Amino acid sequence: MSNTLHELAVEFPEHVALMRHLKETDGHFARLFEAYHEVNRAIHRAETDIEPADDFHIVEMRKKRMQLKDEIYGMLVRHEPEAETPAA
């Protein structure tokens, strides 16, 4: 069992500025971002036995994290040029 946190800034370091931008400008992205981090923290707590969970529950949480990560990545790829636009 891995107990490494899978923070989005580490997973997608090339998109940190865009993630910051989308969290501020896109409500859907902000909700996905927060949901990802909630699930990620819950997985970490389960894997480190801070809040033990059975294997089935951990697998389901990992699937949810991967689904959220995929959706977030899709949004990052679609919106990439937005972060390069200078702020007014």
UniProtKB/TrEMBL annotation:
Protein name in the entry: DUF465 domain-containing protein
Highest taxon, organism lineage: Bacteria
